[in-house]
Amino acid sequence: MKILQLCNKPPYPPNDGGTRAMLQMSADLAQAGNEVTVLSVVTSKHSVRLQDIPEELKTKIHFYLVPVDTRIRWLKLVKNLFFSSLPYLAERFVSFAFLEQLKKLLKENSFDVIQFETPYLAYCLQEIRCMSPAPVVYRMHNIESEIWEREARQHGFFVRWYLKLLARRIRVMEMDFIKQCDGLIPISRRDDEKIKEMGIMIPSCVVPYVPSFPSTQESFFCEYPSIFFLGALDWKPNLKGLEWFICKVWPHLQRKYPSLLFHVAGRNPSSAFAKWCRKKGIVFHGEVADAAAFMQRHAIMVVPLFAGSGMRVKIIEGMMHGKAIVSTSLGAEGIPAVHQENILIANTDKDFIEAVSSLVENKEWYERIRKQAYAFAHRWCSNENKIERLMHFYAHDVA
Fold first, then answer.
1. pTM value surpassing 0.90
2. Digit-coded pLDDT (tens) for 194-221
3. Class of the CATH domain delimited by 2-207
4. Are 99 and 126 in contact (CB under 8 A)?
5. Which residues pair with 230 in a beta bridge?
6. Left if phi > 0, otherwise alpha if psi is -120 to 50, otherwise beta: which for 151?
7. What are the backbone angles phi and psi of residue 35, rounded to the nearest 5°?
8. Backbone torsions φ then ψ of 127, nearest 5 degrees
9. How many CA atoms lie within 13 A of 82 on its CB side?
10. Where in the chain is the domain with CATH 3.40.50.2000?
11. Do 206 and 384 contact (CB within 8 A), yes or no?
């Protein structure tokens, strides 16, 4: 099959959950014998040139990168607020250059499937329908409007009012886009069920993100009982959750276990946050060159996430590395893990203190949780051939 993949940021380098999930999909489809073309927006935040992509990757996947200025312009934001029904987040991605490159690809190629990786490129759908008979599918990483509905709850009156308005606009755009697609590929079963509960009954195929398994020997070597956080530090839900943990949970753990260290890593931290983060017992690493190696060195992963939506890629990767994980319910959303079997769920500061303490004080309990997490990830990610199911879905359900 010839597959066109439309992305709102370049899949390479794979330095966050979204880019890793997109690149893994591209690579898996190419490995299965498909001809994969990626057309991606390049932003100032996710800036990459074609020559930065490894030649080995470019021999398997055709990349087309289009620079788009998505920076927030306050005058445009105010104008959008009063004179548009389109969410400003989506308006920022509208680009004549991107649309022209898409039209060129559609004119020169006969694609069998066109796969969106984001609803923010929905403005391209009309042009696609005019130029190509190929079925359009949406690979849903999360329910985008949920992210902003949850984010709104974290703020004061004015910001909360604006974010609720933004979330409503995104919900309308997102659901309208899904209804116009021929198929849906959610990353989590929970999101698939949510869409069906909303009455949208288009064909769907749940395909979770499945990273490559590390070797067992490497995975289980770590400094016990160190704890760690790993996540993008330019994403507000991560930042707010980490700040909450450092303020509400870490002082209690530090008093109980004076020699315990909390390792924090993530890309794009502000200099102010990096400075604020350097407190007693906290080792701030900033962006690490090898996230897998960082995970392997430490024992207990904390995921204090109170906003956002979709499956947390980091939790799956942590389980694959044999980590004991303490997460909020929202952080583990979309992953069918079981509390006190292969993960510990904590939603308050008291819950986090108790959960982390149980793993620090009882190594046998820690070993049980991390090994069962590893076994769960192995079963969940390996029991089905996801690309084989996806190819069947493409050929029989949306064609």
1. no
2. 999 999 999 999 998 777 666 554 445 6
3. alpha beta
4. no
5. 265
6. alpha
7. -95, 110
8. -65, -40
9. 5
10. 2-207, 216-382
11. no
